[in-house]
Amino acid sequence: MSPNPKRPVFLNLMQIRMPVGALTSIGHRISGVILALSVPVAVYLFGLSLHDEHGFARVMALFEEFTFKAVAVIVVWALAHHLLDGVRHVLTDFNVGSQLRKARRSAWFVNLAGIAIALLAAGLMW
Fold first, then answer.
1. pLDDT tens-digit series, residues 86-117
2. Domain CATH for 90
3. Domain presence at residue 12
4. 30-89 pLDDT per residue, tens
C-alpha cells in the first residue's frame, strides 16, 4: 500500500487564510460560548450584590481588580459581537445584504464594531 500522493502530508493551520465571513462565524460561536459561561457568574454576582451591604462591597471590590475588568471587557465584546452578528444573520434571512460584497462588508462591520465597543467599555472601566 502506497500513500495517497494527493493527500496533504503537513497542514499548517496558521497559514490558511479564511474569508472574513468565516472569521465572523467563528467569532459568533466563541462569543456564544463566552456568554453562556458568563450568565451563571453574572446571576451569582447580581444576587450577591443584592443580598446585603457586605455582598455589594465584595462585588464592587471585584470591579477594582485588573483580571475581573479584563474578563468583563471580554464579556462585553462577546455580547456586542453576538448581538451584531445575530442581527446580521436575521437580515440575511430576509435577503438583506446577502450578496457577497455586502455580506463581506457587514462581516467587517460586525468584527470592527465588536472590538470598538469592547475598547469603549475598557476605556470606561479604567
1. 999 999 999 998 899 999 999 999 999 999 99
2. 1.20.1300.10
3. no
4. 999 999 999 999 999 999 999 999 999 999 999 999 999 999 999 999 999 999 999 999
Is 7 a member of any domain? no
3-state helix, strand, coil in the chain (%, to 5): 80, 0, 20
State how many domains the chain has: 1
Q: Which domain holds residue 36?
A: 25-125
Enter the DSSP assignment of 94: T
- For residue 8, what are the CA distances in angstroms to 2, 4, 11, 12, 18? 14, 9, 7, 10, 18
